[in-house]
Amino acid sequence: MAGMEDVKSYYVFTTHKAASRFIDALMRDLAIGTGLELHAPKHPGFPREKELELDPSKLKVDGLIGTLRYAFLPLDFEDSKVVLHLRDPRDVLVSLFFSHKYTHRRSSEGFNPSNDSLSELDKGIDNYVLFRAPQYLERYNFYIDKMLGQENVTFSRYEEMVLDFEGWLPKFLEPFPLKNRKAFIAKQMKKRAAQFDLDGSEDVTAHKRKAVPGDHKEKLAPETIAKLNEIFARPLARLEYDI
Fold it and tell me: What sequence ranges are listed for the domain Sulfotransferase (predicted)?
């Protein structure tokens, strides 16, 4: 395990629908605050994330790397610093349905669902979350098996971010070599804290539809929740989410 002075790579891993666009914006500011080069999935020359799941050796960069929404183990994982930012997978799946149903436009390089996925979308939210659950279970189990609890990994919880941004922010930033940590935190609080003044309102056509945790309890049928609780029993227990 590398000491802080030897660390060259700082990764942020998450999933879709865990405020990853917000983390993207924070990463851009981190590049300024640390002086490190930012490498992000949509930057020119950055490998497709689905390819990195199959062959992590395609990623050959140092600096700030993220936000990464697919699970893989970088070749320099043991010598890097990692933030693992996760959300209750049941809420992730609910948010995924609304994004795919109402806000995402199809494109060959981005959101391009299969016919099976489109068919499940048309059947409604309960069918869709169960259809997508195995894919996300695999991703969460990978994160739990390979990253969670490792000495060089900081675990970040979406729910703490939206409910206690002031307490969450310093924890998220702890691994990064900021030049002036106190000033950076103060600036981010002023710039971003208002985004988490939650009133429980909802706009199904907005990318940030509803940030309040526990949305699956309102949107899904009881039998669907029971099935998801069974499917995600291990991640929910390890990440300490209520069932």
Answer: 70-237
